[in-house]
């Protein structure tokens, strides 16, 4: 296979195919494999068996890897090879004959080039004989395929033997003997007239008989044992007779092989920055292997991931860091892979309940089209309709003219036409033809089913109840501490029974609950020892640390962020276990989780039993929108459990606070329906919060699956905190009771910066996260305990209230201003005058300030909290801490702070009201020149904030103050505005979806502010757009129309650029300043 001299990356193809030249190295390895498969006529199903192999390094690219990121893109290029073995040779031929023929050529060429038989194996007589047989078999194959004469084939015999074997016949008389022997064998084959497919199968099978581990990848890694780094050989053979799956060999080649796990026993894989791989297994004991090179690690992980997808769950990636690109696209449109018609029809018939319009979308076998299988009225069986991809990139149904830009647009159109209704999405548990590598013998059964036993019936006489009700009482049940006398043992336990008033009315539900939980056996679920028959009771383990919600509030000063992450991993483990057992919990809440252990380097929790089905509007935070019409359905839905899991994790990272404590359940319900989600808790990692958001997706089919939740949480735990716990874990962010000055003064700096806005690595960088969703959306968040002393006092007094942990204002102000006496102003220096305006938390008054030492009187504005709104203090303090660091002509200046008898912010007085009021009042007198000057002032002020690394997050005309008819100033850094329904329109799509605030989201808001200015204060509302559809409309490209008074330049080159869907493509404020400077010339 000669290497061609070209600047393109070369992918070598086996057989008679010319090399594939790749000029776009920005592409990922999966797309290159698809191009190679198309060229070799390999179908969409079998192409998943193939990969890109780099011979010099003996590594493979994962489907996710980009070619441009590889260090080994040298002239030798890559080889397109079959990577994943099938249970038997004939299966590949039945699936895809082109793939089988390609694999045959791969085997033949590797055999001839000496890649299969190496070392002393060639010296054995058996191998020499078999090698002759292989050569003759291949000669016969070539004779049939190319219709050559026997003589021509015999003359070329050297090209069919492995080079190592040829070296054994280097003498002339031996070569004459060899040629005659091969000629005789060829004649016999011709007499038997074997079929070509049979000949190829026999060739491959002979290779596998001689070299059983052919195609099994091996890697060298290291393991840490007793403080030493020991080399280990790793081999992956899913069909090994005694050790199927992954096995390892310690030290040297003479050491015995030991089994690590089968494919079925894999749970997920995490990759560390030190090139260490954590393999999580179903037995709960992880394995760790460290690799010398990054490419080797990724190659190894992609091997395990590929086999898992092709054996167990085709739609799931074991490793979060190496997703399969095509899977993400298929998930987004709820499309199955290239499953066969029989599978699609059977699934559709079993899931559709014979409802018209229910459909399945699946990939076709031609790479460019899809198939819709749909239930139609009047038809006994589903109907298949082809979805054709046009040369323009658009899609249409066969025999239809209407074309659409995307598959999703096409489906939405026919759903609106009532021709389609519900899409049945792919499931992780589909048993289809996509599981190419699954052996018929392989059928993993969970350990719980292996150990299934009849529940233990406990005699009431052996239970001694203390009579004390425990904290975690239910609506229908009571729980009491007890002692179970089991032989010579006294075991502490709990007894759960129906309350007396429900013993008859809810007995059936209670027995059903017992039946559901009594067989659950998992380390993350409270153990059930047994049951009492009369009266019906559950006997379960006693965990004295109590419910997690109250434990979080009373021990917040002791809990580290990593403790919260570990608690989340245990809860995720319970969720996944229940899914595997096909059980819905229906009551996942922080109050229904018990603390199992809290030690210096461990924080373990357990999920309680299922409880009695009971849902009402007060539980709205744990109930997904699809269950709002019938709340009790959330008790029997796995997607509802996932939603509740997300809310429970939010509770954990909020240290036991209840969600939205100041909103009514109905108000919260409306917020969730409008797409609003709970904010990122203050001490929550960004990846964990993204996981919560994935659990709160409105579409239940698109929510994160439990195994993926387990994988992602553990990746965070492993990567950030070193889950092996060989030492005290490092704290990435300060615990909640440690507050330092910088963490207050920079709390508005977003951690969600774009690539070119990365914050420097300071001790507080990890704390700069979006915390204040409540402040932006009038959801009044209670203050956390912010310093060690107040936390201790709170704990000692025992006044923990999970609805909010209050802090003394003087404690915080003392921290901020103890060394800044020049900022302090006495109340006696101020004379309050008329009210100027108000926000949700604060009121602004005009006042006169008398300076000491005869400095005279000055007119100022003072902001104070409304009475009874103590939770706005944090926002006022934030505004103070920001403003005292700012000095710019277009930003309102702070004069000082009053501490006693109440906290007041003293600011410069800006006489001409807010820009919003000014626009509406003087709209008939404002010129374009004035508006451009206002725009310039705002841009310069925002540019300054960017230099100071401050994100405003609430830029709007109402928060701009007019100083003179030609000058404005930016104000209101408290972010405590009451947000009405129309305020959603001011925020960028990434803010609405992920609560991501950056300088680029400020640019979006700046564009909205410009629109307000050139419409003279109109509400920025999209025409014909409902509030709950806003995000969809924005992401679809819909924008505010051009104001009549705005020029094309201002609308097209400024506003619309500020509203670019890609934040990176939006202009910076420096660019905007330059733009308006040019307009003023």
Which keywords apply here?
five-stranded mixed β-sheet, 17% strand, 1081 residues, SHC Adaptor Protein, PH-domain like, 32 helices, 7 domains, disordered N terminus, alpha+beta
Largest sheet: 5 strands, mixed
Mean pLDDT comes to 79
The number of strands is: 31
Alpha-beta classification: alpha+beta
* Overall domain count: 7
Shape label = globular
Protein name: non-specific protein-tyrosine kinase
Pfam families: FERM_F1 (PF18379), PK_Tyr_Ser-Thr (PF07714), SH2_1 (PF21990)
Binding site for ATP: 863
InterPro entries: Band_41_domain, FERM_domain, FERM_F1, JAK, Kinase-like_dom_sf, Prot_kinase_dom, Protein_kinase_ATP_BS, Ser-Thr/Tyr_kinase_cat_dom
Present the secondary structure layout.
Elements: E1 9-12, E2 20-22, H1 29-39, E3 50-54, E4 59-60, E5 78-82, H2 89-95, H3 97-112, H4 125-146, H5 150-155, H6 163-166, H7 172-192, H8 196-210, E6 218-225, E7 228-237, E8 245-250, E9 257-261, E10 266-271, E11 276-281, E12 287-290, H9 294-311, H10 325-332, E13 335-336, H11 341-352, E14 359-363, E15 370-374, E16 383-389, E17 395-397, H12 407-416, H13 447-450, E18 463-469, E19 477-486, E20 489-498, H14 507-517, E21 528-532, E22 537-541, H15 548-554, H16 561-580, E23 593-599, E24 602-607, H17 638-653, H18 665-673, H19 686-695, H20 706-721, H21 741-745, H22 773-776, H23 788-797, H24 809-817, E25 830-838, E26 842-850, E27 857-865, H25 873-883, E28 894-898, E29 904-908, H26 915-921, H27 928-947, E30 960-964, E31 967-970, H28 989-994, H29 999-1014, H30 1030-1035, H31 1048-1058, H32 1069-1080
Parallel strand pairs: 1-5, 13-14
Antiparallel strand pairs: 1-2, 3-4, 3-5, 6-7, 7-8, 8-9, 10-11, 11-12, 14-15, 15-16, 16-17, 18-19, 19-20, 20-22, 21-22, 23-24, 25-26, 26-27, 27-29, 28-29, 30-31
Helix pairs in contact: 2-3, 3-8, 4-7, 4-8, 16-17, 16-20, 17-19, 27-29, 27-32, 29-31
